Amino acid sequence: MTAHTATSAAGRGVAALSAALRERRSGLRRNDFTRTALECWIGRVDGLEQAPLPAGYASLDCRNNRLAWAGLTQDGFLEQALAAVQRYGAGRVAIVLGTSTASIGATEEGYRELADDGVFLPAYRDFVLHTPHSLVTFVQRVLGARGPACTVATACSSSAKVFAQAERLIRLGWADAAVVGGVDTLCDSVLFGFNALQLVSPQPCRPFDAGRNGISIGEAAGFALLERGGNAAGAAQLLGWGESSDAHHMSSPHPQGRGARQAIAGALQRAGLDAADIGYINLHGTATPANDAVEAAVVADLFPAQTRASSTKGWTGHTLGAAGIVEAVACLIALEQGFIPGTLNCSEPDPLCGPQLALDNEAAAPQVALSSSFGFGGNNAALIFGRGGRA
């Protein structure tokens, strides 16, 4: 991975996220997004309303693509991605991005602002804007890439699964490099939808706390550049990935964590590693009673006591289809900067949690990190990253 970036409520770019993690400064705030009162906390990225897309992309202007643009323009990522397109050729760079809602917020707005004759106003008439592929289409246009392009929409595992798909494309010769990542923005459909499932907490989320009572929804954009044989000096590496689909329930994990275990086992096998080799785990840790109980039991069972594990959703909120990439970047921060972020807002850990759970930030130098992402319908993914210089 020769470049990576993340933008969320915790800040724009890697340095801002790292600073928030180190200072234990959450980006969550009381809901000020929905037009109808909903008592909850959210992770909102400021300034998107005042930042329309550049003129050349006006037909795809929406909150989701504005956030994508904000993410692309952090940490020099856009310049590095454009250089990759130039280096390999437009047809040899894949675009694989995850999102759970794409630009559905723009569709909501389009229906709210219908013209007198009942049709969409001109700003909402590009049909691509209202499809799940709005994000990928936008990023393709920005980069001028013409290689394989795919939208991954597997709920909260979306932008973790993109790494697996990109690795396959590169390994099988369909591409020499891939821009991966994910973007999801706040919208009424998501906020009220999760609230209808009784999964939204009226307080800031408390991952793995015994008194946890739901998620805080956030928005984020993150990207990474994967290159064939990318042993660039200091570049982190994708060592392994695992995927599974337990299909146990539409919105609840398998009670014994069958899918989570399979995804983790697959990632370890592909990386040629044992559980004891993992120094840090960024947990999915949504702060819902069911998810955290299952994940806590799986980690306590599979990993040795010295492995450190935490959820970073107390900083960003649950960014849905962007959660995988944001938390992958959190893993890279731990690897590159030598510290373990604790679990914000957890004061009394669930008894199911093992000694692996880190509550406070810790100085450490992990060589290998694992990120787990679990989505609705039992769509699970696990990613393993290593520090630059590993074989």
UniProtKB/TrEMBL annotation:
Q: Which UniProt keywords apply?
A: Transferase
Record's superkingdom? Answer: Bacteria
Q: Which InterPro entries match?
A: Beta-ketoacyl_synthase, Ketoacyl_synth_AS, Ketoacyl_synth_C, Ketoacyl_synth_N, PKS_Beta-ketoAc_synthase_dom, Thiolase-like
Q: In which pathway does it act?
A: Lipid metabolism; fatty acid biosynthesis
Domain (Ketosynthase family 3 (KS3)) spans: 1-387
The UniProt entry, under Gene3D superfamilies, shows:
3.40.47.10
| Assigned protein family | Belongs to the thiolase-like superfamily. Beta-ketoacyl-ACP synthases family.
The record's section on NCBIfam families has: PRK09185.1
Looking at the keywords, is Signal present?
A: no
GO molecular-function terms, A-Z: 3-oxoacyl-[acyl-carrier-protein] synthase activity
Supply one GO BP term.
fatty acid biosynthetic process
Any single Pfam family the record assigns to this protein: ketoacyl-synt
Protein name as it appears in the record:
3-oxoacyl-[acyl-carrier-protein] synthase-1
Any single Gene Ontology cellular-component annotation? cytosol
